[in-house]
Amino acid sequence: MRTHKRNSGFTLIELMIVVAIIAIIASVAIPRLMAARLSANESAAISTLRSLTSAQAQLQSSGAIDTDGDGSGEYGFFGELAGADPVRVSAAGVPAAGAAGTDELNPAVLSAAFGNVAASQVTRSGYIFQMYLPDAAGLPLPEDATGGAIAGPFPDPDNGEVLWCCYAWPVANNQTGNRVFFTNQEGDIYQMNNRIATPYEASAGGPPADAIFTVANDMSSPLGVNGGVATDGNTWVPVQ
Q: Which residue range forms the structural domain that includes residue 152?
């Protein structure tokens, strides 16, 4: 009696069933993985801002930047904090650019990775960070495009002793992060949920330098939190 052996391969129906099962598993797993990565990026951004607060305090207390020579230290940009660019120096009591190869901070107070400045910004773990230091009127000045402060206008020495701020926002909203974060010399971290008509995202789409302040273009003004009105019209609250 002749018997017929079944082909060991899958039939079309069986393959379709397998594909359907894989699709169902993927539809559940992929969003969870993306949500986990997004959450991890936000946590990393908060941690980075906390580290930055400590680094700025260390730099200021060391007096490594003292562009008016009055003995009071000033805050720095990413390139200066990371030792990638020369710190600003005093030229007869007036701010001036430091000399490359001579005036870099050593030891640096931030990881060398923060010296990778492009378009005045640093990108890490799905977030973009941008630092501002004040001029004499409190106007926020960005870092040089490639880091540090090589050419004027330089931050004001007196305001630079007491003011600095930094924003962090996602490279791609809803993909690498959602929330927007802010910190300054006070050490508190604030967030904005970014659920707005035009979310802050990408290098060219970050928050304005005065977004969280109550007075336009004035870093010395109060923050628009706890009942204050931020200049960007959004609600900023403390990170819990």
A: 13-62+113-238
pLDDT digits (tens, 9 = 90+) for 70-93: 999 999 999 999 999 999 999 999
Q: Tokens representing 75?
A: 């805050």
Closest CA relative to residue 149, chosen from 210, 63, 58, 84 = 84
DSSP assigned state of 150: -
Domain count, the chain: 1
d(CA 233, CA 173): 19
Query: pLDDT per residue over 118-141, tens digit each?
Result: 999 999 999 999 999 999 999 999
Q: pLDDT at position 36, please?
A: 81
Residue 27: pLDDT band with limits 50, 70, 90? low
The H or E element spanning position 160 is helix 157-160
With respect to residue 97, please indicate whether it lies within any of the assigned structural domains. Answer: no
Task: Tell me if 94 is assigned to some domain.
Answer: no
Per the DSSP assignment, residues forming a β-bridge with 133 are 141
Tell me: the pLDDT tens digits for 51-65? 999 999 999 999 999
Contact 31, 38 (CB under 8 A): no
Q: What amino acid is encoded at 77 in this protein?
A: F
Instruction: Please state, in angstroms and rounded to a whole number, the distance separating the CA atoms of residues 54 and 109.
Output: 9
Q: What does the alpha-carbon distance between residue 155 and residue 139 come to, in Å, rounded to a whole number? A: 9
